[in-house]
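Blinded run. Sample ID left blank on purpose so nobody reads anything into the name before looking at the predicted structure. Input follows.
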Amino acid sequence: MPPKLNYIQKNKLLLPLVGIGLLLSWFLAFSKTFDAILLHRKLNVDTVQENDISFNPVYVQRKQAALDRILKGYQVGEDWSDLLWMRGSEIAAKHRVGIEYTAANTSSESDSTTVGRLQSLKFYGNFVQLVKLIDTLEKTSGIGKISAMQIKAPKQDLLNDSARKNMLSLDFKGLDRISSKKKE
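Blinded prediction complete.
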């Protein structure tokens, strides 16, 4: 049997027993909870950085490649009006659609608010042919991109060839190619 401890001996053993109790509770419960809290904070920081696309180099590269493809679609050369007319006529002939070319008005002063160049083409044909023509022109490279489109129903009062045909008016927008050489 253990010997009976008096009041002074009990007080002396109380402090080491509290220390042993705290160590046992730390190793059995609190350390795992503390580790779980630290892991949770670390994972939260990781997910915030992972979801922040400004720090993701793969996203930045994909975005740059997509912007380059978009700009490349709008870039046109010096002979853009001629090329647009030739390719537009060729595609219109393949789809059996009439075409009308209107020369673009060029101003003597350059406007700093406008970017690129505009050109309009008008096509005459039935609706299905015109929709196929739009699809083909949108996929064609080197002629800019369609910036505006208007389809009008046939007018009955016209006496010419386009009397019973729908009219499609397309506006194309093109950006001048940026030369890699600096002009001195």
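Unblinding after everyone has recorded impressions. The chain has four helices and five strands.
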